[in-house]
Amino acid sequence: MRTVFWQDGQVKMIDQRLLPGEEVIAAFATVPEVARSIREMYVRGAPAIGATAAYGMALAAHISAAGDTQSLLNDLRQAKETLDAARPTAVNLAWATRRLLRVAEQLAEDAGAAQLEVEELARSLLAEAEALADEDVEINRRMGFNGAAVVPDGANLLHHCNTGSLATVDFGTALGVIYACQEQGKHVHVWVDETRPRLQGARLTAWELMRAEVPMHLIADNAAGHLMRTGQVDVVVFGADRVAANGDVANKIGTYKLAVVARENGIPVYCVAPTSTVDLELSDGDKIPIEERGAGEVAEIGRRPVAPTDVPVYNPAFDITPHRYLTGIVTEEGICYPPFTASLEAAVERGRAAIEERRAARSSQQ
Length: 366
Hints:
The protein is an alpha/beta fold. It has 2 domains: about 5-140, Four Helix Bundle (Hemerythrin (Met), subunit A) (Up-down Bundle), CATH 1.20.120; about 145-350, Translation initiation factor eif-2b, domain 2 (Rossmann fold), CATH 3.40.50.10470. The protein has helices at about 30-40, 45-65, 70-85, 90-110, 120-150, 175-185, 200-210, 225-230, 255-265, 295-300, 340-365; strands at about 5, 10-15, 25-30, 155-160, 190-195, 215-220, 235-240, 240-245, 250, 270, 280, 300, 305, 320, 330, 335. The strands form 4 sheets. Strands 6-5-4-7-10-15-16 form a 7-stranded mixed β-sheet, sandwiched between helices. Strands 11-8-9-14 form a 4-stranded mixed β-sheet, with helices on one face. A 3-stranded antiparallel β-sheet has the order 1-2-3, covered by helices on one side. Strand 4 (about 155-160), helix 6 and strand 5 form a beta-alpha-beta unit. Helix 1 (about 30-40) packs parallel to helix 3.
């Protein structure tokens, strides 16, 4: 299933806030609305956020009233600012808007003194956004099968948050590994962390795995340590919202303690993330901005209070898992192993080259 897509001049997506109770497609017709869909978590998951942002840039061009190329570029730069501000931790957001803006700037440069048709540039940006979304699906499948290679038949996997089709355009990152295992006929079982405070595991991952008929059990977050200590977990897998150059990983809050307890119990830990989530400009995880969200996510469940009125709340959405706790980082370009500074840089370069090859192939077909 496609989590986010373009239809009838609008950016459309599954409203993940309503799952599993309702399956509703939400539509957004302006750039501020698309930014709101990211900020208010209609859509979530780094790759899905990136695709949404790309469609947001295409939308900016589609609805722009600019009469010339330079005015349109100014509109696109403003759209990028608006979209990038929606959520600070997931690097795919700025990566996607930067990619779309570069395409527009390159087209304008190639046109030179001749004025580029605004409509032509808008069509090109939509084509680039569609290509980015299609690439995400293909990348996720490659990544999933790369990760499946280290999962033995009959394994019990512990999974945190949601990293499946809902967190990407389709297929998934860490859940993509599980889906690949299923396609290969491996008999795996998944322990699904509920993932407080927004319950992405309980609401979204359980919903996905049950639809896919993957054997699973939903557990309270606090049960994970017990399962690891008693030998009921063979592999821990999770995604990432940003990976620093040294392999430190920013992921959903609670990931760090899972990795520490897994190391204590001799259990391999794999982060599964596309190369677009790797930020080589940040040397380590301490430089990754951590988003803090509202008190209601912790003090309420389904808008019903579970804590005293006006209780002080600290609600970081992510934590940092130092690279020393990771066995490997699974990407579409293979599994990166320590030293991550070398293996991640090489994977990112291969990923960038693959994007350029695909873009050149599309241009030759036009």
